[in-house]
Amino acid sequence: MSCTVKDIYALRESSRNVLIPGAINKSIETVKKSIEKSGGNVQTKPMEWRNSKPKSDYNQNTFSGQSSHKKVFKSDDIVPHKYVSKFKKTSVDIDDTILNTILRGKLNKFSLSNYNEIKEFITHIIDGGQTDMIKCFMKLVFEKAASEEIFCPLYAKLISELSIAYPILLSEMENLYTQYLQIFDSVTDNQSEDYDELCQRNIEKKYRRGYSQFLAELIKNNIMNTEIFMKIINKIIGQVESQMTNKDSIKLIEEFADCLMKIVKAISTSEYQQVKNMRMILKNETNLQIHQLSIKSETAVGLSSKARFTFLDIYEAILKF
User: Are 242 and 186 in contact (CB under 8 A)?
Assistant: First the structure.
């Protein structure tokens, strides 16, 4: 469509004659009057969306009639929603060290003369709900009882008396039983072991014997259930049976025989009904296995005369139950 200059001027002239509605004219007049009153200078305020405050409000804080200094926030200043301390693990380690030091210091002085004092100290810990400290205490008791056989009766008495009022100790003991069963795992004697290995084996031997003595004292005080007791008995017997054809296991089997003897002697003198049940289970279900370990055999080269005589004593003791 072609359009001449004349046509354009005609259209412009016709647009001037268009009638504007009255409401729009009224609004235009209102705006003009506002501009005239302000001298032609109009300051507009930026609109804030989502009903938020003006930006200037974030930089002012009126307190006691005075405004505070303005602070400019940067993107780097944004605080994470959840703060995670990088020192958290270190703090836990420090707490564990403190607990261990305090309790170990108390137990290092543990004796009949300060028995009541130590017992009262542990009671305060349990009453305070210090779960971590309770676990630390139980672990240390097991370790020290296993390494100090002479104090086994005293440690067993302490746990026995405390567990009557605080059953939580028994729950923690069950966890420790499972852990300490590992010290009965087989370690074959080896003449070529170096000094460090020899030292480690001596420590394990000491713990096995001491732990067995501690178990015996716990049984006397009726704070071991039958299931755990049988797990320990079967663990020892099973290790002997698996090693009896190995000539390098003579000393190890002799040690296991001593451990079993300590436990059997303990249950033979107790009058608790649960312990009586343990005796009947040994007599009816396990004694034949023990008897087989007392018989000399050409294939059982790991069973020394000393070990066989010990198992024979165990067998005869069980027959008297």
Answer: yes
